[in-house]
Write a structure and sequence with these properties.
154 residues; VC0467-like; 3 helices
């Protein structure tokens, strides 16, 4: 295995040999990794949904045509009804899930979503769902060469 003792705050890039259709050609940001497993968010799988549509479904009033062009991404197969916001803004919520030395923050509350129209859209990713790995599962997949670990350099 790599010399990295934790994959937290790293990117996983699916290797061509990874055949699982849920993760084929995926890039995932790992925001939690420990003895009990890992959690991450796939950051390159757009859904057939934009942020304006999501706001409408959640009955959040917004009138910003720029949101029509920003896709919601499929963050993974777990808890697909749960939204996540990956951002670098200090004015979006409190980043209750994680923060990183590069000022990357993950928020998961509707209140944080409501603040999106007041921020710079170039610095956010909105997803539904996340990816989860059980105890030792991610380590085994890395050893099997399913994933390439890439240091995060935002």
């Amino acid at each position: 295995m790599n010399k990295i003792s934790t994959f937290k705050n790293q990117l996983l890039v699916a290797m061509p040999s990874l055949s699982d259709p849920l993760f084929k050609q995926s890039v995932a940001y790992i925001f939690e990794h420990g003895e009990l497993g890992a959690m991450g968010i796939v950051i390159n799988k757009p859904m057939n949904l934009n942020i304006s549509n999501m706001f409408e479904m959640l009955q959040i009033p917004v009138n910003d045509p720029e949101l029509d062009h920003l896709p919601v991404l499929s963050g993974g197969p777990v808890a697909r009804e749960q939204g996540f916001i990956i951002h670098r803004e200090h004015n979006i919520g409190n980043g209750e899930l994680t923060s990183h030395k590069h000022h990357i923050v993950i928020s998961a509350s509707k209140e944080d979503l409501i603040t999106l129209p007041q921020t710079n859209y170039q610095n956010i990713i909105v997803t539904l769902g996340y990816a989860g790995w059980g105890e030792g599962q991610l380590e085994r997949e890395v050893i099997q060469n399913d994933w390439l670990i890439v240091p995060l350099d935002p």
